[in-house]
Amino acid sequence: MASTPRVLFARGGVGPVVAPVPGAISISVSVGSGGKNKRNDTRGVQVALNAVPASLGGAGESLKVDGLVGPLTIGAISTFQQRWLTVHDSRCDPSGPTLALLNAMAGVGDALPPGTATLETAKTLAVTANQAPVAARPSAPRRPTAAELVLIKAAEERQFVVERHHMWIVKRWLINALRVNDAAQAHAISLTHLAHGATIAPAALASPERRAFLLVAKTFKLHERDATTALAGTRRVDLILRQSMLIVAARVPRPPVVSPAPPSPAPLFISLFGRPASVPPSVGYTVSGGLHLGPGPAGRFNPFIIPGQVIPERMSRIYLPPDFDDQNPDLQRLTLIHELAHFVGSPDGQRGTVKEFGTVDRPAAWKRLNSFKRLNTAESFAFFATECNIGTVDSVSRSNSTMDAIGEWPKVTSNTFATRDDVAIELPPAGNPEAAKFAFPAGFS
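and the corresponding structure tokens:
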């Protein structure tokens, strides 16, 4: 199994960036049953066990990181060994396979589907991880500085605004974009039913479904002359937007309807008080890659969540650095949807993965993207949702792009999509020099 480096995708950055791959922990003595159980070493093992989902034999964040070895910590070590290793001594040794495999899995456990790593694979991973350098862990969490406290306060406020304000709007934006794409998909289906060489009826040239299709075609470079590709494109858009909407809908805070209130889901967005040096200037990023891509330590560890502690970045989270605060609210929501597209896209590096081929704030590069890249870059889905909700002109100006790069027509003129006479998507009026481009078959190549 070849080693593949982890990458991260950052909107506004320079594209995929290879991330560092430090080990998770380093211990000086054995931890667990019969071990010497030094407190700092025990904390490290508890953090590493928590980083592995319970479904994969880890503790799944259930252990209290207190440095005390009790039945829960010993049981978690034993469960992990039973799941992956031939050594079942309920102990984690400094140079043993249990620590080595924990180092390989910490922070990326979410990327390892159950059943993909066999026992032989686990042993190979353990050997590879054991040969790799590991990062030193601070002896104890330090107190944040006065400057960090200011940044932490700003991160807390950002977290509150994102969870209590932006996520509701993002959910609505995604639903509206899905309604537009549903109409576009209906037109794409009708195209597949046309006889070879036939044309659509003149009355249908300005139908709501066709207007919706041409809006989708503008963003993703689809064309009516290729009905099969057009239909596949609208289905791809539906998949990414619908998965993103479901993720958000499951995480938006709800008022309690029973007493006591049900537990809140884990936060989807994590607000950072700083930005890791390895992350390019960006307003948001997701971590991609995983243990099933290659052996060895493959984790990112972020000290900008809690000062003095090294917290594993998880694939089940999206990270917002302080750069996020410098954007206007509409661009912030565009960014959240952009990162959601990465989040729901396949992390296996295969064809169809949602990558970072370009962003609309870099117009020259954006215009050059072909249909495949448009359908497989996060910015396409984010800008499409933004345009559907705040209109074409506003979405272009708020995202720091140009009408030349985006294309004015079809133009979204309001934030309400309808399927009757008040349709919000307009084609060029008669006599406009652009009008001839929208005769059937039309589209964008």
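(Above: one complete record from the training split.) The chain is about 40% helix and 5% strand.
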